[in-house]
Amino acid sequence: MTITRMINGVDVGRLTETIDAIKHDPEIATFRFRASNHWDSGGHNMTTIHDFFGAKQNVDHRHDFHISADEPDMLLGNDQGANPVELALSALASCLTTTLVYHAAARGVTVRAVESELEGDLDLRGFLGMSDTVRCGYKNIGVKMRVDADASQEILDELIELAQKHSPVFDIISNPVNVMVTGEPMVASTH
Amino acid sequence: MTITRMINGVDVGRLTETIDAIKHDPEIATFRFRASNHWDSGGHNMTTIHDFFGAKQNVDHRHDFHISADEPDMLLGNDQGANPVELALSALASCLTTTLVYHAAARGVTVRAVESELEGDLDLRGFLGMSDTVRCGYKNIGVKMRVDADASQEILDELIELAQKHSPVFDIISNPVNVMVTGEPMVASTH
To answer: In whole angstroms, what is the distance from residue B77 CA to residue B130 CA?
Structure first.
């Protein structure tokens, strides 16, 4: 019998079961996430998230998610969506938050609220190809998290540490990831 | 007089003006992008993109952009949005696409269509804190881009190279970024 024990909206019973299952069969932990993107015009394009592979099976999301990206007028777009580097901040923000909340739940710490503010500094000369010494991406990113939880300052500090230690997107941004890009001409009939 | 010359939906006249302005005053290229995030419950949280700083001024987006993140049922969420690592793929996809399109426009290459598919491999044991040797983020990411353009195979290959060389999010994911996270207790009245 599974006992449902919800902490912070996370089913801690299922979380424990998942960890036990992975201990017995690590292949369950192998995930492959997917996205497809379709360019519209200028800085405007749309990403669709449809399915992923995990726990040895392909899983469709309940419905497709569409993420519109564009550039503001200052960057020659029509401002129909957050721009790609803003989307990167959203990925980081959501990941740190989810990681904090899940790890708090696993430790039995009730969290009442989490808010964060992020800033990333970027020199446009990289993107524009105006300099070989200026990097294209963020020089640095600052994240301020505010947490309201049933916990001492020491536990709060530990949760902030755990969020960074175990957040996939924090790792992806803080450390190098091998990205392999291949390009091919489009077959006329596919678009 | 500014001559409007649109290629791929990008105003190449303004692009040239921007580059010239930055050559004269590199501080114009200093940008700071921002995001704020508010946790809802479990794996569900919402990022808001409101404004940014660039070209020596603070600029509000035409309206706020809201990006919902959640986890699928298999990862103990309610599937109300793409999850954070899927959002990271969307940031990468949109950035490679925009970079390719803008650099094609700057070179006078007309692009008719760009599509891409991305996959990222991730071992959940990192996120779950089950291993100190398994990384939390993607082990690797594969990107397949398909481009339909008025260009030879050689030019297409060059555009794919330029997309990687100058994409801010490709840089952010491929190379380390310093991320500084600070945490503080929330003042009760702020939420």
So the answer is: 20
Contact check, Cβ <8 Å, B180/A142: yes
Q: Does A93 touch chain B (CB under 8 A)?
A: yes
* Phi, psi angle pair for B15, to nearest 5°: -60, -45
- Chain B residues with CB under 8 Å of A185 CB are 146-148, 153, 156
Distance from CA of B109 to the nearest CA of A (A): 13
Mutate to test the interface with B, among A177, A182, A189 (most CBs of B within 10 A): A177
Listed residue (B91, B101, B164) closest to A90, CA to CA: B91
Is the pTM of the predicted complex or chain greater than 0.95? Answer: yes
Q: Is A108 in the B-facing interface, judged by CB distances under 8 Å?
A: no
C-alpha to C-alpha distances, B186 to A75, A147, B59, nearest whole angstrom: 35, 5, 28
Q: Which residues of A21-159 form beta strands (DSSP E)?
A: 30-41, 44-54, 57-69, 111-123, 140-149
The answer to whether the beta carbons of residues B26 and B18 sit under 8 Å apart is no
Contact A116, A99 (CB under 8 A): no
Q: What is the residue-level pLDDT of chain B in tens, covering all 191 positions?
A: 556 789 999 999 999 999 999 999 999 999 999 999 999 999 999 999 999 999 999 999 999 999 999 999 999 999 999 999 999 999 999 999 999 999 999 999 999 999 999 999 999 999 999 999 999 999 999 999 999 998 999 999 999 999 999 999 999 999 999 999 999 988 765 55
